[in-house]
Design a protein that fits this description.
heterodimer, A: alpha/beta, 10 helices, 10 strands, globular, B: mainly alpha, 11 helices
Amino acid sequence: MSKRIDVKDLNVYYGKFLAVADVNINIEAKSVTAFIGPSGCGKSTFLRTLNRMHEVIPGARVEGEVLLDGDNLYGPGVDPVTVRSQIGMVFQRPNPFPTMSIRDNVLAGVKLNNQKMSKGEADVLVERSLQGANLWNEVKDRLAKPGSGLSGGQQQRLCIARAIAVEPQVILMDEPCSALDPISTLAIEDLINELKDQYTVVIVTHNMQQAARVSNKTAFFNIAGTGKPGRLIEYGDTHTMFSNPTQKATEDYVSGRFG
Amino acid sequence: MTTTSLTKSRGAGRAGDKVFSAATLAAGCLILAVLFGVALFLLIQAFPALVASPDEIQGGKGFVSYIWPIVIGTLIAAVIALVIATPVAIGVALFISHFAPRRLASGLGYVIDLLAAIPSVVYGAWGAAFLAKEISPAYNWLASNMGWLPIFQGPASATGKTILTAGIVLSVMILPIITSLSREIFLQTPKLHEEAALALGATRWEMIRMAVLPFGRPGVISAVMLGLGRALGETMAVALVLSSGALTASLIQSGNQTIAAEIALNFPEASGLKVNTLIAAGLVLFVITLGVNMIARLIITRHKEFSGAN
């Protein structure tokens, strides 16, 4: 239920502006890969190309290949809608659908795939997904209440439950803890640790300690200056990246000298 | 020493605050006073007609039997207008906000807004002189093929000046209100929710159903109610288009009348109790509009917990 991602010579554009240049990276299945780097270095932009959410922005486009177990996401005839149902995403700010109950939020993605589901099957799936997001015990008595009534951390875990309910191959997380308090952050980090047993997880984070805590491999992105494209500077085992990086820029960044 | 510095304040700033708060209070009170004044005028002027003996009222059977056919006529015309305008308006608004290329969208937006700038008497003239004539073959077809439905019972009006034509004209008139309000609401859908839907593998239409429409629902209801308010109160277009008469179930025969058109057509020559009767009709229209707005508010608040506001 999890696949690897191989990116070859990827360039990302907003209109004519080259935002991210020449990225080559191999993301392992069933592991957590963290993208770190200063603001504006293109790590979120790059993450969004991995499930074709990038092209939702008018004028945005991509050159190069993103291979999901060898299948190019940008190949001819590939439907972005299918791509996104295989590669789930959790956003920076929790975004449960405000007009839906907690239960309907979890089922939102599954219902899209037109699967006819009995109430019993749906109940099982809701419980399993919420269990998987460590949220079940907190919400099992109020599944019919709106998701927007939960705390920020609970809402974010609801979004994770919604993402894993469709059983994706990969889960992308775009700074999932940046709007959360430390306790909720810890809950999400624990959850990420459990998710990697089943899923390929890619997480963008501003927080280097978080990258060090949760990830197996870390990729460092940097930007040479305003208006220049972001680049992948270094990619390796998290432990190596934080203790003994090969690049000077990486060392400066992880030791807190800039960024 | 320190206490004196705390009690000192910038005199000018406080004065500005006071003037501003007094001005807003006055504006708020003025609205209430105007509303109250109109309601009071309607009640006082309508009173003689409400208590008059039945044979003094037009028709000779009392106020209630005078008013209810035109209440029904008003509602029929407004409902026809809403049934036609609402789906079209929502469709156009969605097209502008989520489907059309940006340049086409803004152009289309202007054209829709232009529809609102056409005076109602022009709509009336268009409906009476053009639409009624053009549409009467369709009425004949309806009468001969769907005549078993009471609302399409024949013989169809030869002139086409029916309540259905009036409703169609009204629908064109309320289309811009509903469209432009709905478009504004749809454009305000948080990007976050749209992306949430897309990231789950929703197509654009599914994204609209999951994120845009639920978010816009209260706003669209308000927009429809505003349109309904205009359709209920619209006078000139109905007066020109409809050849009025007694209440009939068939929408394609001449007949029926709306309150607003009834008042407008009869007021200039009315005197004595007739004036009071027409004002009483106006009071009824006022109450209907008020009721419609309150029901709309009720629908919106009932789902507050699930609205996008929290």
